[in-house]
Every structure is written in structure tokens, then in C-alpha cells.
């Protein structure tokens, strides 16, 4: 579903991704862990073309977004990245729109579905994330956990078949992380294909089919949660896990 080959990214002389290679199969939940600054966000952002790679390939559903450092056309990029939804650490909700407005903006702009279908879907998705009664409320009235659940519902409005999460609970007070992780866990149980960058090690261990440990711009180690948390092969993986 996603194939990343020798992905490279530099900001000036700073090499942030050094030949990162991995693949994600349909229905898989992959957790990405690693120290701050190791390139996790840059990797995720490259998949949806929020960052432009300086080398390597990203193939989504068999279509190259970038192949050996050469990007597809703007129209192809839009088409290739469209099956992916992204949820950010800081929610990125539109403050001037209600919760429902946030959910419906993109689908109403794209006009691929009728208003009736869009309204029905936003209602369904608000119920799915446990916010049935919050449709008419503005984001400023919500807790962080509620905002993040709105952000997840908004990402689902476009029927993504891949969801990317960049530290979805890092900005939340500890007592609010559970309600967000529960929604992500439910998506995993429904076999949504997901890449989840997270500091929640217990969550990664429970929910991920596979864990990727990034360090210093590379995938240092990857494997099942049992392998990575139970018997990490590298000293730097052990060091990182002992600090978390
Ligand atoms: P992580 O998400 O693992 O914390 P990031 O992908 O955010 O890591 O960052 C990896 C490295 O790239 C860091 O050293 C960071 O400072 C640098 N970096 C990220 N974005 C930019 C940018 N737009 N310009 C320059 N350096 C950046
Ligand atoms: Mg990050």
C-alpha cells in the first residue's frame, strides 16, 4: 500500500532522512517511535507531500509520488496523496468554523458527494468519536482530547484508506490521552491502514502490528511489538526504551 525506498531529505546541509526504506501493507497499523529530532515527522510529512524529498522513492497504491528523487506532476501528486488523511499533534482545526464546519469544509469544497451525504457522514463520524452533541460548537470550547477527536473525524470525512498520525496525544494532558487512543485503537480493530508516530509505548505495544524505531534519520530497527519491546537487538533501541 505504501512503499518507501531509500528516502532522503536534507534541509540545507542537515541530512534529516538517510535512505529510509519500509513498506506498509493494507490493514496494518505501524507505530513509529524514536527520539525527538530523529526525522519521524519529516518522514510522515513527506508521504503527503508536506515536505519534498531530496532523494529516493515513495510509491502509494503502486503509483510513484516520487521515484528516484523525481516527483510526479502536480495533478498526479494530488491524486496519489488523496487516499491519505493526516492528524497532527496540534489538531490544526479551523477556529472560525464549528465542529461540523470543520468536518464538512473539504468534502463540500471537493463536491464529490451531495450535501445530504456529507451532512449524514459528519453526523455519523461525530457519533463514532463520541461527540454527537458538539457539532455546533466552536473548537475553542473543546478540550484538547475533544479537539483531537474532531481532527480524526475530519480526516475520516474524505474516506481515506491510509491515516497518518503525528504524535496525536503529545499536546494533551495525560488524563485526555485515553479518549483519543481509544478512537485510534478502534480504527486499528477496523483494519484501517495507519502509521502512528507516538511516544505512548504501551499503546504502540498493544495496537501496532509492527514497530519502527527511528534514530538519527534512519530506521535503526523494526519488528513486531514483541521483538522491539521484548528483545530489542540494538543498544540504542534499549537506551531509548529505557528512557521512555
Ligand atoms: P521528529 O519528528 O522525529 O522529532 P523532525 O522530522 O521534526 O523529527 O526533525 C528532524 C530534524 O529535521 C530535526 O533536526 C529538525 O530540527 C530538522 N527540521 C525539521 N523541519 C525542518 C525545517 N523546515 N527546516 C530545517 N530543519 C528542519
Ligand atoms: Mg515530530
Task: Describe what this molecule looks like in 3D.
The protein has 244 residues and is of the alpha/beta class. The chain has a domain at 93-159. Helix content is 38%, strand content 27%. The strands form two sheets. It has a six-stranded mixed β-sheet with strand order 7-8-9-3-10-11, with helices on both faces. Strands 2-1-4-5-6 form a five-stranded antiparallel β-sheet. Helix 3 (99-110) crosses helix 4 and helix 5 (144-156) runs parallel beside helix 6 (174-189). It is globular and about 50 Å long. The structure holds adenosine-5'-diphosphate and magnesium ion. Adenosine-5'-diphosphate binds at residues 11, 14, 16, 34, 36-42. Belongs to the ABC transporter superfamily.
Element layout with pairings:
Layout: E1 2-11, E2 14-24, E3 29-33, H1 40-47, E4 55-60, E5 63-67, E6 70-71, H2 74-81, E7 84-87, H3 99-110, H4 115-128, H5 144-156, E8 162-166, H6 174-189, E9 193-197, H7 201-207, E10 210-215, E11 218-223, H8 225-230, H9 235-243
Helix pairs in contact: 3-4, 3-5, 4-5, 5-6
Bound molecules: adenosine-5'-diphosphate and magnesium ion (MG).
Estimated structural class: alpha/beta
Helix content: 25-40%
Q: Characterize the biggest β-sheet.
A: 6 strands, mixed
Write out the distinct hetero groups bound to the structure: adenosine-5'-diphosphate, magnesium ion
Rounded to an integer in angstroms, the radius of gyration calculated over CA atoms is 18 Å
| Percent strand | 25-35%
Number of helices: 9
Could you tell me how far the N terminus lies from the C terminus, measured between alpha carbons in angstroms? 30 Å
Strand order of the largest sheet: 7-8-9-3-10-11
Order of helices and strands: EEEHEEEHEHHHEHEHEEHH
Q: How many strand segments? A: 11
- Uncertain spans: none
Amino acid at each position: 500500500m505504501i512503499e518507501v525506498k531509500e528516502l532522503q531529505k536534507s534541509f540545507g546541509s542537515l541530512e534529516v532522512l538517510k535512505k529510509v526504506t519500509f513498506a506498509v501493507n493494507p490493514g496494518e497499523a505501524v507505530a513509529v517511535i524514536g527520539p525527538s529530532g530523529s526525522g519521524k515527522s519529516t518522514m510522515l510529512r513527506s508521504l503527503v507531500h508536506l515536505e519534498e524529498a531530496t532523494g529516493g522513492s515513495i510509491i502509494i497504491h503502486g503509483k510513484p509520488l516520487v521515484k528516484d528523487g523525481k516527483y510526479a506532476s502536480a495533478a498526479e501528486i494530488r491524486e496519489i496523496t488523496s487516499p491519505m488523511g493526516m492528524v497532527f499533534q496540534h489538531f490544526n482545526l479551523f477556529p472560525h468554523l464549528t465542529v461540523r464546519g470543520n468536518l464538512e469544509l473539504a468534502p463540500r469544497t471537493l463536491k464529490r458527494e451531495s450535501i445530504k451525504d456529507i451532512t449524514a457522514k459528519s453526523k455519523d463520524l461525530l457519533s463514532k468519536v463520541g461527540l454527537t452533541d458538539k457539532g455546533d460548537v466552536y473548537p475553542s470550547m473543546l478540550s484538547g482530547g475533544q479537539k483531537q477527536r474532531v481532527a480524526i473525524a475530519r480526516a475520516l470525512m474524505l474516506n481515506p484508506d491510509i491515516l497518518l498520525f503525528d504524535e496525536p496525544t503529545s499536546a494533551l494532558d495525560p488524563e485526555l490521552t485515553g479518549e483519543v487512543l481509544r478512537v485510534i485503537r478502534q480504527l486499528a480493530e477496523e483494519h484501517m491502514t495507519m502509521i502512528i508516530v507516538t511516544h505512548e509505548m504501551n499503546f504502540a505495544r498493544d495496537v501496532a502490528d509492527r514497530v519502527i524505531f527511528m534514530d538519527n534519520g534512519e530506521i535503526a530497527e523494526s519488528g513486531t511489538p514483541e521483538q522491539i519491546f521484548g528483545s530489542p537487538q540494538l543498544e540504542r533501541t534499549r537506551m531509548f526504551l529505557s528512557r521512555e
